[in-house]
């Protein structure tokens, strides 16, 4: 009986890990879509930049996540010069992402991944989400997220191929690290933004 229980546990765990199989540089990223902060559908295959930075963060309106988002905002011009777009992905509801973007004057798209499907495509670990209360601009808000993702960053090239992966991200310095990678990437196509 113990052997059957152990075998059942191994099978269950292997299925869990296979659902979050890691994606590595050189792999093609599966097309996906998500709801952005405006409630509109955003689709990977519709993106036209030479580079797409996809960064996963645990929760909007928290310390490290705010530092990371504001740092990406502050480096917006440098990313545009490299024809790189940015999307932030978390398990937050899209309405809360709209508030987060507006409150911090963010210049890039935020995607809602409440069930962790996008995190699963990239192999980013998740855990259960929750609801927290936060006072923002004098209002107490209920901020709900379906899952809490780990802080990982990826860069996808214009052909949909993963070219960069960082699963040990420093929130505040992440944008500088990614900019350095893109600027020195050997297959960089352009130095000016597309129109």
Features:
single chain, alpha+beta, Glutaredoxin, 7-stranded mixed β-sheet
Task: Walk me through this protein's architecture.
The chain has 6 helices and 11 strands. The chain is an alpha+beta fold. The chain has a single domain (22-40, 49-184), classed as Glutaredoxin. The radius of gyration is 18 Å and the shape is globular.
Fraction of residues in helix: 25-40%
| Averaged pLDDT | 86
Shape: globular
How many strands, which pairing sense, and closed or not: the largest β-sheet?
7 strands, mixed
Estimate what percentage of residues fall within beta strands. Answer: 25-35%
Number of strands: 11
User: At CATH's second level, what is the architecture?
Assistant: 3-Layer(aba) Sandwich
- Number of structural units classed as domains: 1
- Secondary-structure element pattern, one letter each: HEEEHHEHEHEEEEEEH
Radius of gyration (Å): 18 Å
- Name the structural class: alpha+beta
Broad CATH class? Alpha Beta
Unreliably modeled segments: 3-19, 191-195
CATH homologous superfamily label: Glutaredoxin
Rounded to the nearest angstrom, the distance between the terminal CA atoms is: 66 Å
Number of helical elements: 6
């Amino acid at each position: 009986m113990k052997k059957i229980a152990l075998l059942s546990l191994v099978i269950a765990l292997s299925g869990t890990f296979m659902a979050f199989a890691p994606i590595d540089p050189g792999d093609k990223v599966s097309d996906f879509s998500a709801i952005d902060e405006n409630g509109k559908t955003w689709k990977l295959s519709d993106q036209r930049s030479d580079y797409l930075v996809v960064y996963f963060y645990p929760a909007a309106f928290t310390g490290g996540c705010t530092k990371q988002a504001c740092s990406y905002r502050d480096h917006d011009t440098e990313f545009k010069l490299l024809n790189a777009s940015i999307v932030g992905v978390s398990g937050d509801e899209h309405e809360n992402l709209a508030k987060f973007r507006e409150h911090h004057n963010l210049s890039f798209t935020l995607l809602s991944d409440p069930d962790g499907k996008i995190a699963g495509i990239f192999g980013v670990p998740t855990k259960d989400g929750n609801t927290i209360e936060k006072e923002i601009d004098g209002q107490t808000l209920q901020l709900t997220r379906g899952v809490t993702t780990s802080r990982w960053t990826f860069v996808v090239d214009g052909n949909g191929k993963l070219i960069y992966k960082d699963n040990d991200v420093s929130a505040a310095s992440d944008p500088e690290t990614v900019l350095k990678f893109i600027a020195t990437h050997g297959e960089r196509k352009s130095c000016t933004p597309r129109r």
